[in-house]
Structure formats: structure tokens, C-alpha cells
Amino acid sequence: MRLIATLSTAATLLLGSGAAHSAEFFFAPYKDASLMLDPASGRMQRLAGQAAAQLLQPDLPALIWAFATGECGQERWGEVDTDRFAQANVAAFVQAQRPYVVSTGGEAGSFTCGTDAGFAQFLARYDSPFLKGLDFDIERQQTAAQIDDLVQRAAALQRQRPALRISFTVATYAAANGSQQSLNPLGETVLRSLRRHGFDAAILNLMVMNYGPAQPAHCVLREAHCDMGASALQAARNVSGKYGVPMSRIALTPMLGENDVAHNVFTLADAQRLAQEARAAGLAGLHYWSLDRDQPCAAGEPRVSPRCHALPQVAPGQFFKVLHTAP
Question: Which Gene3D superfamilies does the entry mention (predicted)?
């Protein structure tokens, strides 16, 4: 999920020429499946302090599982047996009657899908009445042909099952200098493929994080730092204006607390603003990276850790509370 976007040079691209499909606002955090994963049962667990805790708490409305990598049908979730992982977690979410999204790719791996049979096997492995959708996180320089394979199969699935929510997660800038600088070439490749296959029902999920140095070409400035709340909303406006993507097909995913890039810090005040304005702007959804980072760091943790947000004044669970229950 962690990526510093590179400058885009391509011309304006349109997602689709037809009327925009409306999408319900969907809130769900990402869960790093590799963190606190029980190897014996294959069950995901939640990180609480330095220990594992029950994942499916009553206030958790839905969850995005991250990330499956490899070729579809043969995908992996780290070192845990894939079928054991799927069976254990699908059963747990069905029993709890909790929606879930299966996310693929990510910063540390890629996901490809070269055959219809492999895609069918992949889908069947995680399918249930509580499967909310699929998310394809494109960060590892998949080729244009590999991206097109994913888009083609996802578009066909969405036509067959229109209730499924299918998103493509890409990096973005949030230029505040009038240039509308936003997607990098990889994101633009995704857009071209979506247009080619007429997939205007897809949701473009913007990683509103790690913009780079605090400059107007990268983000909205506040006291020589990137204003992460304002920049997230600026990124959505830039993508909508430059590429013709309706706001109703854009979702946002910030990274809590300290981002990889110094001076890119997503605070609780940013969360409060984003929670309110994302809904008011008619966006498709709001997510965050990640469930396990929603707590201050213990002594000895690095500045950027998958286990915490590095903001000592913010108590555990506060980001979830603010982002989920915006007034």
C-alpha cells in the first residue's frame, strides 16, 4: 500500500463516455492479513498492543483483506495455505454476517490473472453471500497486458454480478498549483484499460498518502507540510476534473499517522475533516491503511511501522471511531 507516486506525463483520459453509475458510500478499513495471522487455523487476528485480539468486533462494519499475490487460482497469503486461509476466514465472516472485500497486489507483491479458469477458481475460493467485492491494488509495475487481463475479467464479472463492488487502487498526487497533477503512468494505464473495456462501474480508489516533498505540485500545503486531509480531497477533485471520473466512482484511502515520506502525517484532525467531506462530496467510499496501525507505537518501533501510527497522543481505535462515525 505504500508508494511514492511518480510524475504523470500522459494526456487527459476519460473513464467512460456514458452516464455515471451511482455507488453507495462504503466504509471499511484494510487489514494486513500477514500481521498476526494464525498459521495453524489460517484465521486473521487483530493486533492490540503487542498481542493478538479478536478480529470481528461488533463495531466493525466490514473489512478489506490485504493482500493476495501471485497468479489467480494459485494466489498466496504469505506462507499460510491458501485454501486454509480462505475457508477459515470466509466461514468466520459468514458466521458473523459481516461483509468483506478481497484485495490483491499491494506494495510488496503483484497479482496477475491470465486465464478465465484461474479467475473462476479465485472467485469461488472466497465467494459467499457476504462477499462485498474485489479490490485490485496496482503498485508493482504490472505490464499493460497484465492490467488489461485483470480489467477484462473484472468487467465481465461485474456485468454478471452487478452488486459486487469492484475497485482499482492506485497512487496519486494532490497538486494544488492548478496543474491537476494526480495519477502516475501506472494509474493512467489502469484508466485506459477501464475505458477500453467499457468498465465505467469500476471504482477508482486513490491512495492519498506519500505525496513526496511538501510542494504545491504534490499536495496542499499547511505550514510547510502537506495538509493530508485537504490534499486527499484535492486528489479526488484533480482526478475527477482531469480524467472525467465522476466523484461517485472515486474512493479514498489514507495511511494513518506517519507516512513513509517525512512531513506526510495524517492526523486525527485530518481524519475528522476527511470523514465529513468525503461523504458530503458524494464519493464512493472511504478506507484506511490499516486496522492494525490504529494505535500508538510501543517503545522501539520504527518511525513507520505496520503495527502503529506513531502519534503518541492518539489513543487506540480513535481513527476508526472518527472515520466511521462522522457527524
Answer: Glycosidases
Residue-wise pLDDT tens digits, 96-114: 999 999 999 999 899 999 9
Alpha-carbon torsion (144, 148, 149, 150), positive or negative: positive
Domain boundaries of the chain, sorted by first residue: 26-324
Q: How far apart are the first and last CA of the chain?
A: 28
Note the pLDDT tens digit of each residue in 181-202.
999 999 999 999 999 999 999 9
Question: Residue 65, by phi and psi: left (phi above 0), alpha (psi -120 to 50) or beta?
Answer: beta
Helix (H) and strand (E) counts for the chain? 7, 17
Peptide bond into 193 cis (omega under 30): no
Q: Which three cell numbers stand for residue 291?
A: 486496522
Sort strands 46-48 and 51-53 into parallel, antiparallel or unpaired: antiparallel
CB 124 within 8 Å of CB 79: no
Q: What is the CATH number of domain 26-324?
A: 3.20.20.80
Beta strands in the chain (DSSP E): 26-27, 30-32, 46-48, 51-53, 63-68, 70-71, 100-105, 111-112, 131-137, 165-171, 203-207, 221-222, 225-226, 250-253, 257-258, 265-266, 285-286
3-state helix/strand/coil string of 260-294: CCCCCEECHHHHHHHHHHHHHCCCCEECCECHHHC
C-alpha cell at 325: 462515525
Displacement of CA 51 from its chain's centroid (Å):
25
Tell me phi and psi for residue 291, to 5 degrees: -55, -40
What is the per-residue pLDDT across 223-245, written as a single tens digit (0 to 9) for each?
Answer: 989 999 999 999 999 999 999 99
Q: How many Å apart are CA 189 and CA 183, to the nearest integer?
A: 10
Distance CA(149)–CA(175), nearest Å, equals: 31
Distance CA 175, CA 172 (A): 9
